[in-house]
Amino acid sequence: MSKFENWELFDKISNVQLNDKIKDQLDKYFSFLISENQKYNLTSIVEQEAVFLKHFLDSLFFTNIFKLENQKICDIGTGAGFPGVVLKIFFPQLEVHLVESNNKKINFLNELIKILDLDNIKTHYSRAEDFCIDNTEKFDVVVTRAVSELNIILELGAQLISLNGHFVCLKGPKAEEEIENLKGCETKLGLKFEKKDVLFDEFLGTRINLVYKKIAHTPNQYPRQYSQIKKKPLGK
Ligand code: SAM
What we know:
By secondary structure, this protein is an alpha/beta fold. It has one domain (7-231): Vaccinia Virus protein VP39 (Rossmann fold), CATH 3.40.50.150. The chain has nine helices and seven strands, in the order H-H-H-E-H-E-H-E-H-E-H-E-H-E-E-H. Strand 6 and strand 7 (205-214) form a beta hairpin. The radius of gyration is 17 Å and the shape is globular. It starts with 7 loop residues before the first helix and ends in a 5-residue tail after the last helix. The structure holds S-adenosylmethionine. S-adenosylmethionine binds next to strand 2 and helix 6.
C-alpha cells in the first residue's frame, strides 16, 4: 500500500508538529483501520487521502485554539479512536481515556493501542452516562466528535469534567443550529461557552469546533436517564 504524501495540509490547517514516528503511526493506524473495517464496521470513509484528512486531520485542528499539554482527557463515543487516539499520537504526554458503548469497537481499540505501542491510554466499555457515575470531575478535558447533538452530548459529558476544565465538541455545519436549540441551557450543567473556531476547507467542508468551560459543579440530577434526555433534550 502506498504511503500518504499530502502532509502539507496538516501544516496548513493545524499547527501540530509532524515527525517520522507520527507519520509511521498514522500509516499503521490507517492499515489496521482498513484491514479490520469489515469485521467491526468502523468507518464509511476508506480511501487513504480521505481517512488522513477527514478523520486524522479533522481530529486535530481544534488544537489551534485549545492548548494540549499533559491533561487528563476523555473522548466519549470515540468509535474507531477519533479524536482520542489521534490526539495521543500527536501529544504523547496526554493521559487519554476512550469511552465507547460498542464492545466490538473496544476490541478494535485495544488491538490498535498495542500495534501503535501507545502508553497511558485506556479504553472503557461503557455508556458515557454510566461512566460518569464513578468518574465525576475526573478529567481536565472532555472531547467528542459526531456522537449526538449539543443538547444531548453536553448533558452526557459535563459531570466528568473537573472545575475549570473544558468540554470540546468537534462539529460540522449544523453547530450554529445546535447552539440555538440549546437555548443557553449549558449553564444548567455548570458550563459556560468560551470560544469557537470555524474552518471552511475545500476538502473538509465546514468544520466548527466549540469550547465550553466548567465554571460550577454540575448538579447531581445530571445526566438524567438516557430515555429522558432523548425525549426532552435541554432547551426543548
Ligand atoms: N467519535 C467517532 C468519530 O468521530 O468517528 C465515532 C462517531 S460514531 C458516529 C458515534 C460513536 O459513539 C459510536 O461508536 C457509538 O457506539 C458511540 N456512542 C453513542 N452513544 C454513546 C454513549 N452514550 N456513550 C458512549 N458511546 C456512545
